[in-house]
Amino acid sequence: MRRRSLLIVIALVLVATSCRRANRPASAVAIARPTQYELRLGKEVYQSYCIGCHGDSGAGDGFNAFNLDPHPRDLSDPVFQKGKSNAELADAIRRGGAGVGLTSLMPPWGHTLDDRHIDAVVVYIRSMKR
Asked: What pLDDT is stored for residue 34 in this prediction?
């Protein structure tokens, strides 16, 4: 009986601890350092789908940027980088600008890219900090 009570207490503590961790904001959770593979994959996807508007360095100066009003966002801007979570960046890539309340000029890539590729692009965008 005593052993059973102890197991129940341990189980309750574990559940309470995991719930508390799950409710922490994303900024409080430690982010693992990306692997070289993730960076390389993100760069390849970025170069295929994003570079035309956002440019080589993410500054929003791609070859098609001059055609767009508003111009593409500077992804390397430190203020922008600090102001957006990885989930927000992934959501914008997945649903496009209009899907997150911004310009409809950024297309949604969620039907083209799977979650792994979108996450890799986010990792690569994070490496663009000035």
From this structure: 85
**Per residue in 40-49, pLDDT tens?**
999 999 999 9
3-state SS, residue 74: coil
Residue 119 pLDDT greater than 70, yes or no? yes
- Judged on CB neighbours under 10 Å (0-12, 13-18, 19+), 59 is middle
Quote the CA–CA distance of 100 and 92 in Å, as a whole number: 6
* Distance, first Cα to last Cα, the chain: 61
CA gap 45, 112 in Å, rounded: 11
Token pair recorded at residue 61: 């100066």
pTM: 0.74
Task: Kindly report, residue by residue over 23-46, the tens digit of the pLDDT.
Answer: 444 443 445 788 999 999 999 999
Domains in the chain, CATH or no CATH each: 34-126 (1.10.760.10)
How far is 100 from 118, CA to CA, in rounded Å? 16
State phi, psi for 60 to the nearest 5 degrees.
80, 25
